[in-house]
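Q: My labmate handed me this sequence with no annotations at all. I'd like to see what the chain might look like in three dimensions before we decide whether it's worth expressing. Could you predict it?
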Amino acid sequence: MPASPARRAAFRVVRRVAEQGAFADQALHAEAAGLEPRERALARQLAFAAIQRRRTLDHVVSALTGGRKKLDPPIRAALHLGLVQILFLDGIPDHAAVSETVELAKRNRGSGLVNAVLRRATREGRGVIDAIDDEAVRESIPDWLAALWRDAYGDETASALMRRANEPLELALRANRLRATPEEVAEGVGGRVAGGDAVVVDGPLDAHGHPLWHAGAYMPQSRSSQRVAPFLDPQPGERILDLCSAPGGKATHMAALMGDEGEIVAVERDADRADALRTTLDRMGATIVRVDVADAGEPRADGPFDRVLADPPCSGLGTLQAKPDLRWRMTPERIRDLVAEQRRILETATSAVRPGGVVVWSTCTLNPAENEELVQGEQMILFPHETSSAGFQVTRLESAA
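A: Here is what I predict for the chain of 401 residues:
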């Protein structure tokens, strides 16, 4: 049985991430180009699951090969791809997972090993996983991250977060009320309205190729991210500062909430991302947004603003479902550098808001050092109000009148 287009694409993605340090989403975009929507969706599911579960899969490989550590990268990638289908993904027959994965490995020395290990995994693999007593290994989480979550939130919550990090990610869209209603978007894409402006699509969808996307009717955006702009509560006619604005999900959401009346200054320091942001604003009809290519940590000379949204670069530990390779890229050292940058951005935000105005600090990470600990150290701000949703930490800060 020849390997399906989805499996061939997934195999290339897994290899590029492991061997070239590619980002999983970018590799998928390149390798799955031209596939039919269902094949593209399957390629994404296979590749992302294999990358997410890497630590667990390496443990299974070791157990089923007698502790063998040296494997050629293509063989290891094939084993990961086959094992994740057998052990973690429903609806895929074992014989298809074995035979098609062996086909992927045939051009490389060691395809016989792939065949033997995968066949053994159909009988013994689940028992190997059930016998793992280290939760971080079982859930494929780095030790440092498991320790961070246990220290910050306790064992029970940390366990829930580790399990959640491997669950399938839903496809959520935000209807752009400047162009269409949530009901119109749901009908057009075959989804369902899920509260507010959110539309959830349960089946495959080429979100960036659909006519409604080109018409600016929606923005792919998680339901967690969609809660941020309403929490800031921008009003028509106000001046809003949006720090670290690209790719523009929250800026366009604020423009829609304001009825496209007022002014939003969207700050983005990367020129290419700023250009992409302008394209998004045009597509979605957000005419009140002005893009400023600048460092979000530099003081503003164009204040004061009624409200400020600060959405800084962060460790992204709340987005592990969407970014399967992030858990292997992020380090405690990198987080310390990010916190220093975040502190500069927070100072800019608090100095730019008018007396009595509002600052919202929003990150897509689950790490107190980047959220409550950082905000509590800000002496210029009074009356913090915090909320959180899966993946996002959001804090509302009101300046002294």
